[in-house]
Amino acid sequence: MSGVLRRGAPRLAAAGLSIALRSGTAETQGLAHLRTCLGQGQPVWRSGLLASLLQRGYADLPAHQELAMPSLSPTMTQGNIAAWRKNEGDAVNPGDILAEIETDKATIEWEAQEEGFIAKIIKPAGSKDIAVGTAVALIVEEEEDLAAFKDYTPGAADASSAPAAAAAAAPAPEPAAAAPEQAASSGGSWPAHEVLKMPALSPTMSMGNIVSWQKKVGDTVAPGDMLCEVETDKATIGWEAQEEGFIAALLLPDGAKEVAVGAPAAVIVEEQDQVAAFANFTAADADGGAAPKPAASAPPPPPPAAPPAAAAAAAPAAPSTPPPRPKAAASGGRVSASPYAKRLAAEAGLDLAGAAGSGPGGRITAADVQQLIASGGAAPAPAAAGADAAAGAAPAGGYTDVQVTQIKRVTAERLLQSKLTIPHYYLTMECELDSLLAARESLNLSLAGSGGKLSVNDFIVKAAALACRKVPAVNASWMGDFIRQYHNIDVNVAVNSPAGLMVPFVRGADKKGLLAISQEVKELAGKAKEGKLQPQEFMGGTFTISNLGMYGIKQFAAIVNPPQAAILAVGAALPKVVELAPGEFAEVQVLTVTLSCDHRVVDGAVGAEWLKAFKQAIENPYMFML
User: Fold this and answer.
1) What are the extents of the domains in the chain?
2) Distances (CA, A) of 81 to 102, 296, 440, 591, 597
3) Any bridge partners for residue 357, and if so which?
């Protein structure tokens, strides 16, 4: 959370009124309050103090701070409040746990950074899909200020002052000088577009540096494509595209420093012929002069003062007509589809003629194509079936709807993206385990007194790390214009948790001993199952292992975990009779493993070389000591 207002928070006394600063209100509201209190005194408007105060809002409540939903993982855009650890009226100190937040990766504890008292909880426990930056609670510095928030309703103060703000702001051109960046706007009219803003790529990131753009103006962009490399407060991280289209403008150059999170960075459009229209587009246009992508038959926007909670409560009763049905493309006519949707359809061999589109004007989106693929090529049914019809189609035995967690939702999106965009191929090999099992038994006997115990999976992690060291081309990622080979070997281990699949990683696995790997894997797996993994324990890794041997699975193929280039699927160790010499047979324990590779990064011969190195290490565990 951002800081609680310090003691002596700025207050403006005028005409016997006291106005406390409050972050997050509109500038026009602040103008309205100041005009009312000061009678539009021109010298006051131009004072340096008030010019800075105009960048913040005012309310008649005591000094307080809105606590906004934090970004607790690099890819987090929204979160769920699993539980509040603090109640209204409770004291808060640095390091206290405010709430448990379910992100797209795990359930993470949200820690307080400063002291104060919880004045109001805006979003109760169980609130879902709260956008990052949305106010979830209020905090005050003084305990005696708590009573003023007893009947507080989010946005109520804003709503009451909004008309006055609108009326007072109209005849006064002077405040425009407080925002000189608007003067730089070209004032143009732009086709439908979306402004891409600097993302929060780490929980503590407030600004970042643009190292280099991987896309240039005019380039096609698809979900998962690398837009640019961003240097955060933690590391240099690739910024992945979430939508499809074409780069129309880059608002920040390579090497741009200290760019605030949320600052406009680029512009994306749906059609390539729209790119030229943005030749003179500036960051000022993105801030104030840009028109967002219009939605089909979009209703007028709600009043700015309407609080999110009130809008959500009113949503069920708002529509007077049913939502528009997806429109089908005319048979034999031009198919209206996004570039990425057309590409997906071509890869899947689908004809989009006659397919229904859910986008503006019946435009077919990538989601529509993915639905077509999932349904075996049949056109998706219109999404306007009523609840009664859906209930009538239910099987006689009924069914149970299982709530999808944030982790499950994001995992599903990334796995689908991986299968649709990564050219997989698979290599399978058998490894004899008798030597490994004998070594494991001997080592466990020596560890019995200390409580340590090695598993077969610990040997597999070590063998995979050694194979990555020997064949570094597999320990790599596809970056669009180049392949990045990592010097560190961090092995992810897939763990099934109540919230979904997690892949924490063992950092520097090639340099660690078996006992250290065993202890670390056990600790990470325990945290994953309890939902206590920290972002730095699962955000990263260079190679992944998925082991289903404990379930008796003989062999399977796993989906590559992007942006990695390979994943090893491990089955169960099963007895098999092999011929040692002509006429001489023996029963041995055999482990079947399958390596899934991204063919853009790992050629078939390279993948085979990696498996050979893995087999050599598994069948000769003394190599672990080298």
Assistant:
1) 11-175, 186-289, 330-382+405-420, 422-625
2) 6, 32, 44, 43, 37
3) 327
Say which of 129, 254, 351, 603 is annotated catalytic. 603
CATH topology of domain 422-625: Chloramphenicol Acetyltransferase (3.30.559)
Give me the residue label for tokens 């959500």: 312
* Residue 74 DSSP label: T
Tokens 């909670």 belong to 309
Domains 186-289 and 422-625 share a fold: no
Is 33 annotated as catalytic?
A: no
Q: Is 104 a catalytic residue?
A: no
What CA–CA distance (Å, rounded) separates 271 from 192? 9
Give the type of residue at 446: S
342, two tokens: 């057309």
DSSP of 319-333, one letter per residue? -SSPPPPPEEPPTTS
Contact 593, 429 (CB under 8 A): yes
Q: Which CATH architecture has domain 186-289?
A: Beta Barrel (2.40)
Answer whether 0.90 is exceeded by the pTM.
no
Q: What angle do CA 245, 224, 472 make, to 5 degrees?
A: 140
Pair of tokens at residue 133: 């930056």
What does the pLDDT look like over 331-377, one tens digit per residue?
A: 444 567 766 677 778 777 777 777 777 765 676 877 777 777 766 65
**Rg for the chain, CA atoms, rounded:** 29
Prior bond of 563 cis (ω within 30°): yes
Report how far apart, in Å, the C-alpha atoms of 435 and of each of 57, 325, 446, 459, 550 are. Answer: 71, 63, 17, 12, 20
